[in-house]
Design a protein that fits this description.
By secondary structure, the chain is α+β, with helices and mostly antiparallel strands. The chain is built from 7 helices and 11 strands.
Length: about 325
């Protein structure tokens, strides 16, 4: 079953980036622990405990405790730690943070698999957060993913993980969603037949990637799209289909034949924070895009929520 647990009146600070000054970060402390995962499911108490990791993660960023940031994250969120955290010690600006409240938990019931759940925080701006139990500790895997449409109705009466086992076709469609995104974003001429609705953020992203090289001339810019490895995490929708959580990386390569780049993709300040130089002749930049995608029973894709963050810049 997919129970819903409301967490009303609880305010949570979710991190979209980094934090305050600190010379020597403290040693990582233990994330909330839960008993061994074999043969058990996520309950309301588990979800409430796990949600506390978000506050710990926020504190770790504020202290620039990069080891703890990595310790408290997995999947896409782990990609945003590491070098991204280290750059905050070298002048990277602190991204804006939001205090989320009025949260609802969606708890998959699959005792044979690693526990995980989805939180939908409705205020101040609706966003999804996915938490996963890894090595007997809760870690943030995705989010916050800001909703771009009204949240789809999740099915509270269907056993779910990679969507309901009663409908294996939904499971196949869910597992194909990340690969379809990869194919779509790698096909600037639209030859594959994969479509997203008008105004969808993924269509806008493809348009941006196609036009971006012209904006940095005389520098030369190219990009590559890669999926971030993770289990497919999908919740069943009330009208059939699935809500799939997945992520990808955009790898930009920017070069010049002059003394230095004319238009560093993320500006001179960020380039220096990551690389230590403000006069690079080439840069390799990594962005992380996290997505919640609605997949209908006939295989149509719609982006429901999205997050995009800078993970790394190297020479």
């Amino acid at each position: 079953m997919l129970p819903r647990v409301a967490a009303l009146g609880v305010s949570l600070v979710l991190l979209a980036g980094c934090g305050a000054q600190g010379d020597v970060p403290p040693e990582p402390t233990a994330a909330p622990t839960v008993p061994g995962s074999a043969g058990r499911t996520v309950g309301a108490e588990d979800a409430g405990t796990a949600f506390g990791v978000l506050g710990e993660l926020d504190d770790a960023w504020k202290l620039r405790d990069c080891a703890k940031v990595l310790f408290l994250t997995t999947a896409a969120e782990n990609e945003l730690g590491g070098r991204g955290c280290e750059a905050t010690r070298n002048g990277r600006p602190v991204p804006a943070r939001a205090t989320y409240r009025d949260s609802e938990f969606f708890l998959p019931d699959r005792p044979d698999e690693r526990p995980w759940f989805v939180a939908l925080a409705r205020e101040p701006d609706p966003a999804y957060i996915v938490l996963v139990q890894e090595d007997d500790r809760w870690r943030v895997a995705y989010g916050p993913l800001k909703l771009t449409t009204a949240p789809p109705e999740l099915d509270a009466d269907v056993t779910t993980r990679v969507v309901p086992t009663e409908d294996p076709e939904d499971g196949v469609r869910a597992r194909l969603a990340p690969q379809k995104h990869l194919t779509f974003l790698s096909d600037r001429y639209g030859l594959t037949g994969i479509r997203f609705p008008s105004g969808d953020p993924v269509r806008s992203l493809l348009t941006e990637l196609t036009k971006k090289p012209a904006t940095v001339r005389p520098d030369r810019l190219s990009h590559e799209i890669q999926l971030i490895p993770d289990d497919t995490r999908a919740l069943a929708l009330a009208d059939g289909g699935a809500l799939v959580f997945h992520s990808l990386k955009i790898l930009h390569t920017q070069k010049t034949t002059s003394r230095k780049l004319a238009h560093p993709l993320f500006g001179t300040t960020l380039a220096k924070a990551f690389t230590g130089t403000s006069t690079p002749k080439s840069l390799h930049t990594t962005e992380v895009v996290q997505l919640a995608t609605k997949v209908t029973p006939d295989g149509k894709l719609t982006t429901v929520a999205i997050s995009r963050g800078l993970a790394d810049i190297t020479l």
